[in-house]
Amino acid sequence: MVYQMLDCLHDLRYKAKILHRDVSANNIMWEMQGEEVVFKLIDFDFATFVDDEGKATDATARSKHRTGTLAFMAFELVKDMAHRDNPLCEPVFHLLHHDFESLYHLSAYSMIVIPEGEDADKRELYRESVWLCENGMMQQIAACKALSWEWRRMRSLRLPPQSEPLRPWLLRFSDLLYAAQQKVRIHDMDESVLFDHETMGGMLTRDVITSVLKGESVVTYGDVSFVPVPQEACGSGTSHEEMIEEKATIQNESTKLVPERRAPAKKATAKGKKVATAKAITPKKIAAKASKTKDTASKAKLVVTSGTMTAQALMRRGPTTRSMTKNALIVG
Known about the structure:
332 residues; mainly alpha; 2 domains; two-stranded antiparallel ribbon; two-stranded antiparallel sheet; 11 helices; globular; Pkinase_fungal
């Protein structure tokens, strides 16, 4: 259903310049065509024509009048409704990525409501999830929407046994929405950079969503791709600087433990005096070299520590999966 609706919404926007604006459970029908299930988007009462930027051309559609079914509305639209009287909040235009997000809420709703089960169990699941996103104060509903793609919450979301195999798929969808929000926050800190709000910086397009949901791409956060933590840093927890200092100490101790070889007794000659002088100076040179080695280790400590902190900061939220070995989707 989601893949067909992604194609439908994409073609409506870029071929017909139409935005549906009310993707919900009651507006998607299905029929059997041979052995294939075909889904169809209906009810264009709230649909509007859009310009090249994806914004509604109708004055009423561009106003703060919100359309859609509350349980499936995108977080930004619900938040805008909750703060419509706040003059500091900029108006939010209904864009294509909002309809894509509605598909996410519709997917979670379908996993909870459609599977058969005991009525008491279904009512309990409904009140724990869907009911909270359509009842109560608008601020409470907005807060509930903000948590709808939070990784820990989606991991613990109760699903019917029939829908449990689809949880990894739903987590990939929530990861993508979360990463798109992070992309917007990064842009808000530097608005001088060009940014496509309709697709949230290229994060929420038909092709990107399809690729992520099918496991063909991996979501990363910020403007960098996934960087694995160095193997030394993920072993016993010993830091690089500690390992370097330990190696330097072992080398110094091993130098001390080596027994000194006594030179055979020779007659006092000028040549012998030079040899004795060289042997007397050698320990000092060794100490000097050890001091340089310690300084070098200290400098290396700063470099390696910085590298380790960078690698750990770029780790993907959540556990590493096999899908992360595939082509990484660079958020740029």
